[in-house]
Specification:
2 copies of one chain form a homodimer.
Chain A (H helix, E strand, L loop, with lengths): L6 H28 L6 H8 L3 H7 L3 H12 L12 H16 L2 H12 L4 H16 L2 H9 L9 H17 L7 H13 L9
Helix pairs in contact in A: 1-2, 1-4, 2-3, 4-7, 5-9, 5-10, 9-10
Keywords (chains A, B): DNA-binding, Transcription, Transcription regulation
InterPro entries (chains A, B): Homeodomain-like_sf, HTH-type_TetR-like_transc_reg, HTH_TetR, Tet_transcr_reg_TetR-rel_C_sf, TetR_C
Protein name (chains A, B): TetR/AcrR family transcriptional regulator
Chain lengths: 201, 201
C-alpha cells in the first residue's frame, strides 16, 4: 500500500498519463501481433516511443504490463449505474457489455486468451481480471439490497456473471446479433426466473 | 431430403461408421494443427488412411466436412434428460456441459473459432451448430410445458443458452473450477430469478 501521493507526485502522475496510455495501447498492439509468449518489453517500448526503463519502472514484469493493458480495456472501462432499480441498472450494464464485447480490443484479447490458453501467466492474468470484474457490481448489489430487491440467499454476483457470459457467448460463439429485445429478455429471466409462479417452492 | 435408405444402403452406412468416425477425428486433428483456412481434404484423407474420394463422396466441400466434425463433438454428444422436473433436467444438462466444456476436443474447437473468427465459412458453421444446439432441448421444454412448469411468455431456449454460456465463461475465460454447488446455484437463479418475492410485478 502506498501513502497518498504528494502534490508534486500527483502532478507527475498526471503528466505521466499519456505515456501510460501510449504504453498500454502499444502492449495491446504487440500482443495482437506476436501473442503473449513472444512479447518483449523492449518491442513495446519501441512501439510506444519511450525508453524501456520507463516501462520497467512502472510495470516491473511482462505479466504486470499485460495485466495493466487488459485492465485498461475491461475493469477500467466498466460502468456502475445507479438508476434506482436493479432492473434499470442491469439494462444499462447489459447494453454496455454488448457494446464493449464487439470492440476490436476485446475481440483481440479473447483471441489471445484462447490461442494461448495453456500459458500459466495468461491464466493467472485472466483470473485476476475476473476477480476484479466480480468486485465491480458491488455498489449495484448494495443498492439493490438496500431497496430490499434481492431474494434471500441469492448469490448476487452470479447475476452479473450470467449476464456477461450470455451476451459474450451470443456474440462470440453463436455469432448472432444482439438487440434491445434480447437484452430485456435476458435481464427479465435473471430477475424473475423461468418457473411458473405456482411451481415455486 | 433423401428417401429412406434401402436395406443394403443401411448395411453400407453401418459398415461405413468406423470410416466416418476416423475421417471426422482426422479432421479435428488436422484443424488443431493447421487451422481452417489451411485445411486440405487430401491431408485429412491421408491422416485417416482413406481415399480422398471417400471423403468427397460424403462431404462434398471442406465446409461440410468441418461442420460434420464439429457436430460430432457438440450436437451429436448432447443429452436429453427426462427426470420428471425441469430442475432435474437442467442439473443433468449443466453437469454434462461442464464435463464436455473441459474436453480437449472442445477446447481445440473454441481455440479455432476465436483464432479464425473473421473467416466467413467458420462463422457460418458456428451459426449452424448453434441453431442445431438450440433445437436440442425442445423435448425438455415441451415436457416442462406439459407439466405447467414454465412462466407464461418465457423464452425457454434462453434458459439453456444462459446455462451453457455461464458454464463455458467460467471455465474458459474466468478459468475457475466448477462444482455441484455452482451448478445448483446457477440452475436456481435461472428457475426462480434474483428478485425478492414481494418485488415481482
Amino acid at each position: 500500500m502506498k501513502e497518498k501521493p504528494s502534490a508534486s507526485e500527483r502532478r507527475a502522475l498526471v503528466r505521466g498519463e499519456p505515456v501510460v496510455r501510449g504504453v498500454l495501447a502499444a502492449t495491446l498492439e504487440e500482443l495482437a501481433e506476436v501473442g503473449y509468449e513472444a512479447l518483449r518489453i523492449e518491442d513495446v517500448a519501441t512501439r510506444a516511443g519511450v525508453n524501456k526503463t520507463t516501462v520497467y519502472r512502472r510495470w516491473p514484469t511482462k505479466q504486470d504490463l499485460v495485466r495493466a493493458a487488459f485492465r485498461s480495456i475491461t475493469v477500467d472501462r466498466a460502468v456502475t449505474p445507479d438508476t434506482g432499480s436493479l432492473r434499470g441498472d442491469l439494462i444499462v450494464i447489459a447494453r454496455h457489455i454488448a457494446t464493449q464485447a464487439s470492440s476490436p480490443e476485446l475481440l483481440g484479447l479473447r483471441r489471445l486468451l484462447f490461442a494461448e490458453d495453456r500459458d500459466a501467466d495468461l491464466v493467472a492474468i485472466a483470473q485476476s481480471i475476473h476477480e476484479s470484474m466480480e468486485a465491480l457490481p458491488r455498489p449495484v448489489i448494495e443498492a439493490a439490497e438496500a431497496r430490499g430487491e434481492l431474494a434471500p440467499g441469492i448469490d448476487a454476483t452470479l447475476i452479473f456473471r450470467s449476464l456477461a457470459a450470455t451476451i459474450h457467448h451470443r456474440l462470440g460463439l453463436e455469432r448472432r446479433p444482439i438487440d434491445e429485445g434480447f437484452l430485456a429478455g435476458l435481464v427479465e429471466l435473471l430477475l424473475v426466473g423461468a418457473l411458473a409462479p405456482d411451481k415455486r417452492a
